[in-house]
UniProtKB/TrEMBL annotation:
Polar residues composition bias: residue spans: 10-22
Protein name, UniProt field: ABC transporter domain-containing protein
Domain ABC transporter, chain residue ranges per copy: 30-267
Sample GO molecular function, one term: ABC-type transporter activity
InterPro entries referenced in this protein's UniProt entry, alphabetically: AAA+_ATPase, ABC2_TM, ABC_transporter-like_ATP-bd, ABC_transporter-like_CS, ABCG_dom, ABCG_transporters, P-loop_NTPase
Superkingdom of origin: Eukaryota
Organism (species): Fistulifera solaris
Segments traversing the membrane: 350-373, 385-407, 428-454, 466-487, 494-513, 587-611
Keywords tagged on the record: ATP-binding, Membrane, Nucleotide-binding, Transmembrane, Transmembrane helix, Transport
Major site of localization recorded for this protein: membrane
Length: 622
């Protein structure tokens, strides 16, 4: 089908909030025909969905019900192009055009079962940033747009409450409010009443039905066990069991249909509960369920449903083709992302500001434990080196916290990317620019007082040591970012980070000399940052220092004892204990090596973020 000419965005706030009209798709229809979902290969293939079909037009709500394992979540994952764990077969169209990732990002929105919003933003801030990112109005009209959504969603009392403190119902209404800001043609809701009490569930469903009618949106939702009131609010109903349809049609058709096949609903019984029990293997005989499924397969065309194979919904009138929607230019998206994440970094007590104070506190402890190391006597040379290692060892190890936090953050970005709000590129670019100064702040907190006030390091080496520390933290943070993106489970990512940190410490060259490492283990010395950091940091500490001379005759137990006072010469003696060290200045080479390791993992992070933010399932036509 040819696409409709590109629509022009309206200029007034009221028009911008009328999603279907503003997109030029005011009579849209979603159709899916004979969709199957297959997992496994060869003789072990299994159909999770079998020949499921349906048609939903604008202003109507389709509720997909079924017992656990019925396939309803798989169906909505398939329709939202999220079913990546198997092969999807069939046909899914919006206004006759096959549903693609681009069409989904421009015209669809999915609200997952568990609402996830930025915890350190308020409801109003969340909506405002969403309005800006979706470019719904001129900047001077954004506040009016946001206020209208707040009023529509009944969020007035929670408008300035942080998302982490909002109730489940308020978070769900916030999710729907964000969807309205996008002005979608098609809205998917996965278990919209999950975790809510009866009153909240009823209110949410009333709001969903109202939104469908007033905003002329197609809404498809999965729902587990609705109350009678919620059940009666649906326009269309699909009952599933074992990945097949047991019924699909208007809600008012369901009771007559089941009565016609000798399964009448008892008086004063919630129809939804009755239907679910009827197709649930735990409560009904397997033969009965098979009979119900087979009967629907045979009688579907005569059941009066708008969901049937023949004609694929041809009885439903509606426009053909989809509009091409414009989005905010990348530079504007970048600026908004920069402001949003800068605000969250300021408010987050753990990821950045919190780690600064952890670094300060921990390194103060090391500085005090190694109190005698502040003396410039040669018997303290080894202690001076070891305290420098501890100053970087624990802070870099705290990157394990970043793996968990960044994994959670990236999942939120994936949801926004899926719904066409942001791109993975704008996220990684804005976040990288914001975080770079933090490595120098980390260094100031970790070394400022502990190393230069308590351990009395020479001020001449301050700049170089700060740069080396910041570079090393950049390297470990890049590892944390890459693991956070590539591993779905943050715990596995955290364990891998700990493996990297332990490997860096073991192969840093100070526990065992590089030449004594058995090949190919020596390779780890070159691809991990501690060796380069330790060598140049030790040089900066010793090169600018003047030590007391040492007389071997009176200091026989001291590992380092020479009559010279030059710190470089003392470092040369120390290198006999730690062959890693050198009395030569290798600052540039070591800094480049540390940064190269960080850049390598940063590239892995960027590639992973871009890849995963554009990863979608493909629906193969038969």
């Amino acid at each position: 089908m040819s696409e409709v000419e590109e629509g022009k965005a309206p200029t007034t706030t009221s028009k911008r909030l009328q999603s279907s009209h503003s997109s030029g798709m005011e009579s849209s229809i979603l159709r899916f025909k004979d969709v199957n979902f297959i997992v496994g290969a060869g003789d072990k293939t299994k159909n999770i969905l079998t020949d499921v079909s349906g048609t939903v037009r604008w202003g109507r709500v389709l509720a997909i019900m079924g017992p656990s394992g019925a396939g309803k979540t798989t169906l909505i994952s398939l329709l939202t192009l999220d079913a990546l764990y198997g092969r999807a077969v069939g046909k899914v169209t919006l206004n006759g055009v096959p549903l693609t990732d681009q069409i989904f990002r421009e015209h669809c929105f999915v609200v997952k079962q568990h609402d996830k919003h930025w915890p350190y933003l308020t409801c109003r801030e969340t909506l405002r940033y969403a309005a800006e990112l979706y470019d719904v109005a001129a900047s001077e009209d954004i506040d009016a747009v946001v206020e209208e959504i707040i009023q529509k969603m009944g969020l007035v009392t929670a408008a300035d409450t942080r998302n982490s403190s909002m109730s489940g119902g308020q978070r769900r209404r916030l999710s729907i409010g964000i969807a309205l800001l996008k002005q979608p043609t098609l809205l998917f809701l996965d278990e919209p009443t999950s975790g809510l009490d009866a009153a909240s569930s009823s209110n949410i469903m009333q709001e969903i039905v109202r939104v469908a009618k007033e905003e002329r949106i197609i809404i498809v939702c999965t729902i587990h066990q609705p109350s009678t009131k919620v059940y009666n609010s649906f326009d269309q109903l699909m009952i599933m069991s074992r990945g097949r349809e047991a019924f699909s049609g208007d809600v008012k058709e369901a009771l007559p249909y089941f009565e016609s096949i000798n399964f009448p609903c008892p008086p004063a019984t919630n129809p939804a509960e009755y239907f679910l029990d009827l197709v649930n293997s735990d409560f009904s005989d397997e033969k009965v369920i098979t009979e119900i499924l087979d009967t629907w397969e045979e009688r579907r065309p005569s059941a009066g449903s708008s969901h049937h194979k023949k004609g694929f919904g041809d009885d439903e009138e509606g426009q053909e083709g989809v509009t091409k929607m414009k989005r905010a230019p990348l530079r504007k998206e970048m600026a908004i992302m920069f402001r949003r994440h800068a605000l969250m970094m300021q408010r987050d007590p753990i990821l950045y500001i919190g780690r600064c104070f952890v670094f300060l506190t921990t390194n103060l402890v090391f500085a005090i434990v190694y109190w005698n190391g502040r003396d410039y006597t040669q018997d303290q040379a080894i202690n001076k080196f070891w305290v420098a290692l501890w100053f970087i060892g624990v802070p870099s190890n705290m990157g394990v916290v970043a793996v968990y936090a960044l994994n959670d953050e990236f999942k939120s970005i994936l949801r926004e990317s899926k719904n066409g709000m942001v791109t993975g590129f704008s996220y990684v670019l804005a976040k990288t620019i914001l975080v770079l100064p933090m490595f120098f702040i980390f260094a100031l907190f970790a070394l400022g007082i502990p190393a230069f006030a308590i351990q009395d390091n020479e001020p001449k080496g301050f700049g170089a040591q700060i740069i080396l520390f910041a570079a090393c933290m950049f390297s470990f943070e890049s590892v944390a970012e890459a693991l956070a993106v590539w591993f779905e489970d943050p715990i596995i990512g955290m364990l891998q980070f700990m493996n990297f940190w332990f490997g860096a410490f073991l192969f840093g060259g100070f526990l065992i000399a590089p030449d004594d490492m058995y090949w190919p283990f020596r390779l780890f010395y070159y691809i991990m940052p501690y060796g380069a950091y330790a060598r140049s940091t030790a040089y900066e500490i010793f090169a600018h220092a003047t030590f007391e001379p040492c007389d071997r005759a009176t200091n026989q137990l001291s590992a380092i004892c020479i009559p010279e006072t030059d710190g470089v010469k003392v470092l040369g003696e120390l290198s006999k204990v730690f062959p890693l060290l050198s009395s030569d200045d290798n600052f540039i080479a070591d800094l480049v090596a540390i940064l190269a390791i960080g850049v390598f993992y940063k590239i892995l992070y960027v590639v992973g973020a871009l890849y995963k933010s554009t990863l979608v399932a493909k629906i193969h036509e038969k």
